[in-house]
Design brief:
Layout: E1 6-10, H1 13-35, E2 38-42, H2 47-50, H3 59-62, E3 68-72, E4 74-76, H4 86-93, H5 114-130, E5 135-136, E6 143-144, E7 147-150, E8 175-178, E9 188-191, H6 193-196, E10 201-206, H7 212-218, E11 239-245
Parallel strand pairs: 1-11, 2-3, 2-7, 7-10, 10-11
Antiparallel strand pairs: 4-9, 5-6, 8-9
Length: 258
């Protein structure tokens, strides 16, 4: 049975960033106590900007960064110093400002083809599951990350899983690849929905007016049309929390949070 998503609506993006930092820091503390590690999956886009409060006091000094293991939900198959690289975005805005050991930051091998990079990244995940760094779902055998941080595009896509694309139906692989992304650059790797939906916690962060139509559709009572990729995000044994602001939810009748 799917868990009911939790919708949080804040006054502004600034409030979202403040509360997201506390949410992540609390999860980090809990998982470090329970498992000795904290596995976090990052997205690209504005997600990294949303993490800015984590690199400020009190969190920059109190979070046990040495226990973090960091992964990417999807990545563009470009060099790590390329402007389109999600690794570069995360490194410049977040990872360079906190003391996570470099060996616990798992970027893709950008010297490989899209298919090769996807295979290599899945092999890396399997090794970390075997080492019990990454948890495994007892329900379906897919990796169970402690926290996946999801963004969403104006078309309702998540990761590199786009509306109408065959990859949204992939249910065997952990990591797959796309060579014809409707959004440039065309070649990417991406986690599949079974991996996303096996997470212990998913934070879906959507702020500003750019995605207001997709948010309205995704969270409306009328689910009769073909689902957007974001509507395929669900957790049977975890928790899904939407972190939004009033601009993003302008087409919903919801009560805001302070």
């Amino acid at each position: 049975m799917e868990a009911t998503p939790k919708l949080l609506v804040f006054e502004s993006e600034e409030h979202v960033a403040v509360c997201l930092a506390k949410y992540i820091a609390d999860l980090s503390g809990n998982f470090v106590r329970e498992r000795g590690v904290f596995t976090v999956v990052l997205s690209g886009g504005y997600m990294i900007e949303s993490l800015r409060k984590l690199v400020e006091p009190p969190y920059v000094d109190s979070v046990e960064w040495g226990k973090w293991h960091v992964f990417w939900l999807d990545e563009r198959v470009v060099p790590k110093d390329h402007a389109d690289s999600n690794y570069k975005l995360a490194y410049d805005g977040f990872l360079s400002k906190v003391p996570i050991p470099p060996g616990q930051i798992y970027a893709i091998n950008d010297s490989l083809s899209a298919e090769g990079a996807a295979d290599d990244y899945e092999a890396c995940l399997r090794q970390l599951v075997n080492k019990q760094v990454v948890d495994i779902s007892s329900v379906n055998g897919f990796p169970k990350f402690d926290l996946i941080l999801l963004g969403m595009g104006p078309d309702g896509h998540v990761a590199s899983l786009f509306p109408g694309h065959p990859l949204i139906k992939e249910n065997q692989r952990w990591v797959t690849f796309i060579k014809d992304s409707p959004k440039p650059p065309p070649e990417r790797i991406t986690f599949t929905f079974p991996v996303i939906n096996s997470a212990a916690n998913i934070a879906l962060v959507v702020t500003g007016p750019g995605e207001v139509d997709a948010v309205g559709r995704a969270l409306s009572a009328d689910q009769s049309s073909v689902p957007l990729p974001v509507q395929m995000v669900s957790t049977e044994n975890g928790k899904l929390t939407w972190f939004t602001d009033k601009q993003a939810t302008a087409k919903l009748e919801v009560q805001g949070c302070k």
